[in-house]
Design goal:
Helices cover 45% and strands 17% of the residues. The protein has two domains: 198 residues, Rossmann fold (3-Layer(aba) Sandwich); 124 residues, Rossmann fold, CATH 3.40.50. Helix 1 links the parallel strand 1 and strand 2. The protein is built from 13 helices and twelve strands. By secondary structure, it is an alpha/beta fold. The relative contact order is 0.16. The strands form two sheets. The protein has an eight-stranded mixed sheet with strand order 3-2-1-4-5-10-12-11, sandwiched between helices. The structure holds 6-O-phosphono-beta-D-fructofuranose. 6-O-phosphono-beta-D-fructofuranose (F6P) binds next to loops.
């Protein structure tokens, strides 16, 4: 192996740069050159790449976003696009850093075109199978919690209910984890499968109890995952109508954190995970492995052990199956997440 290529794809995630940095360093140590492909699969198809020198990547671990650029490519979804990408690849192997859509592309490139490909999970959504966390999740959670702390300051000053909507696509993980850390009174996530009437009835109860005069509470914080079907605006109107009658003086506001949560310098955790996954990727390529993802996960029967006890490789097909199960609710992980949140819903509201 003389030269590897690396690309970042899909929604950017803090820590992508740290993974690129670690790859370039590890490769250099083995005498392998690293090509940086611009703008994800679009850049791969167009042959847009250049050699990444150590000096190019020296400061980037501390930076959010991705210096390589990213894209959600339409053309790469076609077999012709993937053939073009395989033909344009000017390296012995490719490392793809991205979320489940990007890793699906990595699998197709490896299986259809015979390109040696290793994937690294990177997505703030934490919706990827075979990895307990993905690059970017920890930073996103820290950003959400710090935003909720600030919102709580102003909410308490005005006796307000705040509904904070967070990203996560179809996965409620960011909402669930942040609601515990931010001391939210309620958490809404798609996996609960509740209809709008139930959502509004239950939240109304939380707000009534929260502002009960015997409790002296000054704010009610609701963290809502973006995948929940009931629009945030509808929740705000319904709650405002209720408090106008039952809890006069209380007002209801909403903040959609949106892309704010995707930016910023990666935390220690994301840099550390990115670095160790990158080490796993290079070791995999050196062994001649392909069509695999390096996950932040202890070894299990479907995985391939690595030297790092927290890192296991999985066939991309296994990762894709487990991702589907994570999102359709049939996986044990999703079932446990939902059960845990339901069991503690009352505690959140105390
Ligand atoms: O997958 C990452 C993510 O940030 C999701 O949480 C969100 O739904 C989506 O990407 C937003 O995509 P875009 O940046 O294209 O608006």
């Amino acid at each position: 192996m003389k030269r590897i290529a690396v690309l970042t794809s899909g929604g950017d995630a803090p820590g992508m740069n740290a993974a690129v940095h670690a790859l370039v360093k590890m490769a250099a140590e083995r005498g392998v050159e690293t090509l940086g492909v611009r703008n994800g699969y679009d850049g791969l198809m167009a042959g847009e790449s250049s050699v990444l020198r150590l000096t190019d990547v020296d400061p980037i671990s501390a930076w959010g976003g991705t210096i390589l650029g990213s894209a959600r490519s339409k053309d790469f979804r076609t077999p012709e696009g993937r053939r073009r990408a395989a033909d344009a690849l000017d390296a012995d192997a490719l490392v793809v850093i991205g979320g489940n859509g990007s890793l699906t592309g990595a699998h197709l490139l490896a299986s259809e075109c015979g390109v040696p490909v290793i994937g690294l999970p990177a997505s703030i959504d934490n919706d990827i199978g075979c990895t307990s966390t993905a690059i970017g999740v920890d930073t996103a959670l820290n950003t959400i919690v710090s935003a909720c702390d600030r919102i709580s300051d102003t909410a308490r000053a005005h006796r307000r209910v705040f509904v904070v909507e967070v990203m996560g696509r179809q996965c409620g993980y960011l909402a669930m984890a942040s609601s515990i850390a931010a001391g939210a009174d309620a958490c809404l996530f798609r996996e609960q499968g509740k209809d709008s009437t139930t959502v509004i009835r239950e939240l109304s109860d939380v707000v009534r109890r929260g502002f009960d005069p015997t409790r002296g509470k000054k704010r009610v914080l609701v963290i809502k995952a973006e995948g929940v079907a009931t629009p945030t605006g509808d929740i705000v109107s319904a709650l405002q109508d209720m408090v106008d009658v039952e809890v006069p003086g209380v007002t209801v506001r909403a903040t959609v954190l949106g892309h704010l949560v995707r930016g910023g310098a990666p935390t220690y955790m994301d840099r550390m995970v990115a670095g160790r996954l990158a080490v796993g990727a290079l070791a995999a390529l050196a062994e001649g492995a392909s069509d695999q993802m390096v996950g932040w996960q202890p070894w299990d029967d479907d995985g391939i052990e690595t030297r790092d006890p927290s890192v296991t490789r999985f066939p991309l097909t296994t990762m894709l199956e487990r991702t589907d199960a994570l999102l359709d609710g049939s996986s044990e992980t999703t079932r446990r997440r939902v059960k845990m949140m339901e069991a503690h819903a009352g505690v959140l509201a105390i």
